[in-house]
Amino acid sequence: MIYLSQLVGNPVLDVNGEKIGTVSDLGIATKEVFPRVTSLAFMGPGKTPFMISWRKYVESYDEYVVHLKVSATDIRFSYLQSDEVLIARDILNKQIVDTQGMRVVRVNDLKLSDTSSSQLRLLGADVGARGLLRTFAPLCETIAVKASSAFGKPLPERLIAWSYMNLVDRNLSDVQLSVTHKTLDDMHPADIADIIERLDPRLRGQVFAQLDDEQRADAMAEFDDDHMAVELMGGMAEMDASRLLSAMDPDDAAELVSELDYDKAEKLLRLMGVKEQHAIRQLLGYRDETAGRIMTSEVVVLPMNTTVAETIAHLRTLDEDFEAVRYIYLNDAQGELWGVVSLDLLVISDEQVKLGDLATRDLIVAHPDDDQEDVALNIAKYNLLAIPVVNEKKELLGIVTVDDALDVLEEEHAEDLQIAGASQADTEHDKGRSAFMWMLRRNTWVVMFALVAAVCTVAACEMFARVSGGVASAVIAGLLASLSVPAALIITDDALSYTTSIYLEYDADDEDAPSTVGFSLKMIALGVAFAAAFVLFYAMCGELGGWLMARGGAGSLEHLREALLASMCAAGVSIVVSLASMPAYLARLRSRDAHNKDSNGWAMSNTATGVCAAVFMVVFSVALSLQLGVM
Fold it and tell me: Is the full-model pTM beyond 0.70?
């Protein structure tokens, strides 16, 4: 076994032992399962690049030198064939798609295996830390491997076999670019979308452009990031973009069109067929986050006197890309939704039976203006595969399918996590974030505490110096006084969490939702109760401080009682102010929700605890200065 990093830079010697250059790259034949090395690229005198046939000219090789079979004068140069690439230029340090693990990784080194004394084959890519260390310096890899083994945690290689790799950044000619992503093309659209989302921005368009129209449409519908989908569509010709929208399901196409600017959207819609354009414009007429916006108009509706045989014949005439049929919906003579027949019941029924005799009349329906989350919850509650959407006249407008319901619930869950204080990385299971940053993000009150403790100590030192209290007593008094800060900050953060839970559980117009006045009075009462508890607790601490002062004389605990009393006032006031402000946070959450704007729970937590800390510092400084008479 040998690695590319061990070959590059080695001297190339002819049959006479004369150095004619240094190894710069290796060419491989990409169509093989384990591609064999076909060419040797080396840098000759004067940094002139040369390429020769590996099979024809290479006699032997090792980690230190490459020996040729002929003299320098007998060498004939060659060129890459259409199915060949240079692995250092085209693969090393590039992003690749691991089609087995469905992920995007970066190649740190390449592992080769000899099948004879001179033949080399590419086994795969090293995408782990060992490959990176080996490229930097082999000694670094050796030290890291031994150190990790000593601690009982071996550092394994992370290899991806060539058969599971697809290049996604190939700076090749048009001919060479035809040797491409057969494995990527065979993947599920959701996996393709996930891989494209993880690529560098400059590579997304290159990979997306190599998919056919059907794959593009399917992958576009799976993107989690609407802005990325808009960006990809912006890089397409208008006719291609319009054709892409036509190939998408109407609800997915409408969602994408709604993200485009008006002029761009109108141009694309006018280029579409009349039927597809009408379906998308109809959906765009409904408000965001309603059943009308996520429903699809592709639904099978038949009269209730249609037979099973006629229904099956009708289903066979549907287009291949028609929305998956789960139910057959029935209309009465007035065009109202009358009943529904499930597909499995249709299959097992006699051909001459009429649909009206098989239909279920007790229907769960939605209206186009219903909130999309409520509709999704009803689909989950009643174990439906789709729910019909009807207007005031009970006419069927379309259906919301279970896959769209799952998307809605996933989006709502992610929004709830964000409002509750979780980051996007949490919802996506981003394991790359360091433990320190993870803890810091969820315990920002610790930073606030350190800041308040420092400010209180500095303030105490400055004021005690004016009354000859001594630096030592000031530091001790400031630090002890700041011990109440964590309690105030944690109470504030818990109050915000309670406020967030109220917002998530109740809509503003729910009958069970607490009124603004009632919620405000409740939070103020809780603030006063906590403040009273602090008064009692710190009164006891003040007495303890006085007793210690009496035992120790006018030592380092001088003025401790004044500092504790100031801290008590600061904690009580900051808690009352923080809890009294909770209705404002609730109002802001509901206001942003009404305008379809996201809310960041972590940012709100920082704001609430920051206000609490600021009030604490101000009140502490004022109260302590009044007691010491330095104002």
Answer: no
